[in-house]
């Protein structure tokens, strides 16, 4: 099973770079849905994930339909939105061996509303106090969701105990 973080038309290179770093550290695929609001050669993107960009399985999709066509099992697609009714902790992400996809919207406008209305049963949300903020930061949201998924999957292939560098020399 492989987990995917998919970004719909991301605008800010720092968010994408931070998400790429999270993907590198969790063996998560990063799906980028065009158009992108930056070049992948952009200095800000490189600064946010320079040491990790080559360690990430990045897959580019020309548009949302092309991304959807790339998903083998559409039942494993989750749309992350503050407008969802189901919390991100409610689904059981450990039930099958199929890939899981977590689609996040554009930083300024989220996912297209008609698309979300067509797939309300796939929508999940991170609870937040809407009276203080409009939305959580995209890279923070991606990290929150993927670590819940990995927790439910018992952190596959991830080191659970960190050793000091000198311990690895023994």
Describe the structure.
With 170 residues, this protein is α/β, with parallel strands linked by helices. The protein has a single domain, classed as Alpha/beta knot (3-Layer(aba) Sandwich), CATH 3.40.1280. Helix content is 31%, strand content 17%. It contains six helices and seven strands, in the order βαβαβαβββαβαα. The protein has helices spanning 13-26, 43-49, 64-69, 113-118, 138-152, 165-168; strands at 3-8, 29-33, 58-61, 77-80, 86-87, 100-104, 123-125. A seven-stranded parallel sheet has the order 3-2-1-6-4-7-5. α1 links the parallel β1 (3-8) and β2. α1 packs parallel to α2 and α1 (13-26) runs parallel beside α5. It is globular, with a radius of gyration of 16 Å. The relative contact order is 0.19. The model has no long low-confidence stretch (mean pLDDT 90).
User: What is the name of the CATH topology?
Assistant: Alpha/beta knot
Low-pLDDT segments, ≥5 res: none
Number of helices: 6
Strand content: 15-25%
Order of H and E elements: EHEHEHEEEHEHH
- Name the strands of the widest sheet in spatial order: 3-2-1-6-4-7-5
Features of the shown structure:
alpha/beta, 31% helix, 170 residues, single chain, 6 helices, 7 strands, Alpha/beta knot, 17% strand
Compact summary:
The protein has 170 residues and is an alpha/beta fold.
Structural topology:
Elements: E1 3-8, H1 13-26, E2 29-33, H2 43-49, E3 58-61, H3 64-69, E4 77-80, E5 86-87, E6 100-104, H4 113-118, E7 123-125, H5 138-152, H6 165-168
Parallel strand pairs: 1-2, 1-6, 2-3, 4-6, 4-7, 5-7
Helix pairs in contact: 1-2, 1-5
């Amino acid at each position: 099973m492989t987990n995917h973080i998919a970004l719909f038309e991301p605008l800010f290179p720092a968010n994408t770079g931070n998400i790429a770093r999270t993907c590198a550290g969790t063996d998560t695929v990063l799906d980028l849905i065009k158009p992108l609001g930056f070049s992948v050669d952009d200095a800000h993107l490189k600064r946010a994930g320079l040491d990790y960009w080559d360690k990430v399985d990045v897959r580019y999709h020309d548009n949302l339909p092309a991304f959807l066509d790339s998903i083998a099992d559409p039942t494993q697609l989750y749309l992350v939105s503050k407008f969802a009714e189901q919390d991100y902790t409610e689904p059981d992400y450990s039930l099958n061996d199929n890939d899981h996809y977590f689609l996040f919207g554009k930083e300024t406008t989220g996912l297209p509303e008609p698309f979300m209305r067509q797939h309300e049963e796939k929508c999940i949300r991170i609870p937040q106090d809407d009276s203080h903020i409009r939305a959580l930061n995209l890279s923070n949201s991606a990290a929150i969701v993927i670590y819940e998924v990995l927790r439910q999957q018992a952190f596959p292939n991830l080191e659970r105990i960190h050793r000091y560098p000198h311990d690895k020399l023994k």
